[in-house]
Amino acid sequence: MLYGVTVIFIALFAGEAVNRLVLGAIPGPVTGMLLLTLFAFFRRGFDRRVVDFSSALLRYLALLFIPAGVGLMTLSTQISSQGWALLLTLLISTVITMSVTALLLQYLLRRKRDAAPYQDEQP
């Protein structure tokens, strides 16, 4: 578990460092997640310890949204004045996210299906 925590926090800190040194417009955790994804892509997957820690972290993901929800309550006047713009933005971003996720899933499933016959031939 300590190895998984270390890898994820190194990715987070690397993302923050890249964000502060180069990018600036993209949040550091997002950059860190992209770096972690690139790391997994080049290693052809994650170590089991990272997967176990990530699964445990995802189990309690809903608790991490509580501070953000409370923060939204303090912005109620701004949200009520710009509600339609926020609603439209949420709607468009949800449609884009779902479309990209569906296309990526189709691509990965097709890739896995095409690679399956070759996996039986490897020793």
Automatic annotation (TrEMBL):
One matching Pfam family, short form? LrgA
Q: Where in the cell is it found?
A: Cell membrane
Naming one, the record's GO cellular component terms include:
plasma membrane
- Residues that span the membrane, as ranges: 30-46, 58-79, 85-109
Q: Any keyword Disulfide bond?
A: no
Could you tell me which InterPro entries the record lists for this protein?
LrgA/CidA
Q: What is its main location?
A: membrane
Topology in the lipid bilayer: Multi-pass membrane protein
Tell me the keywords, alphabetical order: Cell membrane, Membrane, Transmembrane, Transmembrane helix
Record PANTHER family: HOLIN-LIKE PROTEIN CIDA (PTHR33931:SF2), HOLIN-LIKE PROTEIN CIDA-RELATED (PTHR33931)
Q: What is this protein called?
A: CidA/LrgA family protein
Q: Which organism is it from?
A: Chitinibacter mangrovi
